[in-house]
Task: structure prediction
Amino acid sequence: MTKRMNPIVDFVFKRIFGTEENKDLLLSFLNATLKPEEGKQLKEITLVDPHINANQVGDKASILDVRGKTKTGEQINIEVQLHNKYDMEKRSLYYWAKMYEGQLAEGEPYRNLRKTVTISIVDFSYLSSKSYHSVFRLREDKEKFVLTDNLEIHFLELPKLGAEHQETSDLLVKWLLFLKAESETKLEELAMSEPTIRKAVNVLEFLSQDAEARRLYEMREKALKDEANMIQGAKQEKAMEVAKNLLAMDMTVDVVAKVTGLSEEEIEKLKQQLH
Result:
């Protein structure tokens, strides 16, 4: 049996949610996430740059996000992250700002700016909140009124879905459990409960069996692993540099370990090298 692809890998996510034939899946996911008022649900969306090429897939710096524009001009961007690249909040705000600023041609009035939404789905715990779904807007500190609804940033943290979320009628939770894809049994259960998720499971199964999709998926997995290793290597190098400076100041091994996150064994070896 062919190993099922991981739907949280950005290449697979984009093939499921970012294609013309699967716009119904994207709309279902967006309505579940944004939770618009009754009667204001999204019914159509235009995909922005739905194409994927092999050079993109193999490039670890590429961002294979899903981006759309609503009928009223609202901009929506979804990105998925397997590994913690750090400074996620700054990255999200930067991507939001680029999308927001990119709406206006030179000389256009500011009133033409439309609401811009970014949604980050991450496969690691990042924010201090215990909730799997965090939403950020521009609110006044004391009275909590919103300055403008043009800024909206969502974080969806998959590890924060616990046992209490397994049996649910909440469509967003169902979509996130689909993305976790913990077992064939769970996927089948989700598919039985929701027609759009049934279609998503079928798309995932088709992709997993398709030879060309499998080749691109494996390319993308390698690129993402290379990127994660590079980030981890840079973090380790920085920690070692800090440890050297602290040891030079005669800090004890246990204190250096607490400050840097390195193990005491690593610091002992470093101490021996320095002497």
